[in-house]
Amino acid sequence: MQKQIVRELFQILELGGVILLFVFALGIVLPAPLPTILNVASYGILLLLIIGRWKHFAYVITTDKSLLLLVVFTVFSILWSEGESVVDAARGMIRTTIFGAYLAMRYTSREQMRLLSWVFLIAIVLSLAAGTFLPSYGTHVVNGVSSWRGVFSHKQDLGRFMSFAASLFLISALDKHSRWLAAIGLAGTLVLVKLSNSATGLLTFVFSLSILPFYAIVRQRTYRAFHLAVALLLSSIAAIVVTVNIQTIVVDYLGKDMEFNGRTPIWNLVIEKGLERPFLGYGYAGFWSSDAADEVLSRTWLGMVEEKGDNVDSGKKQSRGISHNGFLDLFLQLGLSGLILFIFNLSMLFARVFILVFATRNLEYFWMIVFIGINLVTNISDSLTILEANNIFWVVYVSVALSSSLELGRLRRKHKQMKNSGNLTVAT
Q: What is the mean pLDDT of the segment spanning 294-316?
């Protein structure tokens, strides 16, 4: 009886530690000195979570070799990085990677979905409260427009995380055991995406919505080729419509200019600078504090400080900036070597998840496909989430990569056992 009480108490403490690590990965704005305390405490929490299972953890984190190689290459890149806080950034990235690996080790994919749902529900409630009762904290002015940011530092962060949460609640709604929770969460995320005025958040949500019919196709056991052909045809038509009407969509509906609010000149300059160090890049977190970044900052709005109301929302010269395209930022940091390594890992991940979806038709693997798509949309249209320290996108990417690798391994072993059992029966 006493052992059971101790075990239950440990599970409660473990769950509390996991939620604290999730909150830290979300980047919720907290009053000082809480961020510093949580930053220091997170290392101790992770150590306590893993120390008793270190052998199992070592096995899990090595199941995806290319992911491990990418992380190791990133750590070694600090040797040629000129970043001012590169060691701290690399340490944070390692911690974030370890947390993702812990989730894959400790929880099933379905349990990870539930955990994320509750974490996002906490963020939704806090953001709604911040915007309603503390507008000086929960809102800010960007380009002359008042937008909600909730408990995050910027409206884009709120829009990005809420659209991510919306995809999770959309898919959870397909599970009859989670529909009420999913409905409440989905309603909250849609309200916050709207109030954030985030075009990226809106695009991400539309993407999640558009991919839902694919799950219905996957569940069909007959005439699969026909259904897939129809889906491919409809997707092709949709892509053609979007391409033909891209200017109308960008300018009239999203309120952007055809240079995506001045991002195209940034991308051109960033590519030019990246090609000066094409193979290894400027090192992890090394470009934006280097001399090479000065030209990009001086020739674009990134290098100008513009105050909008009481907030500084764009163009602030800083030691760590973004080019508003995650793949370009990765190219700047790790060169073509790191970029190719990540694309290879992403391709292998997609292949694994695709096999799992059709082999099991389980909802959690379909969610993995949606997450991969959201991660691509986010990195193409906005910010870097790849190898980012204290970033929930990277936490989930690592957990999805390792969980899918573990699950596919189990599936193959089970199939092999069934095949061997069948052979034995025939021989008998």
A: 56
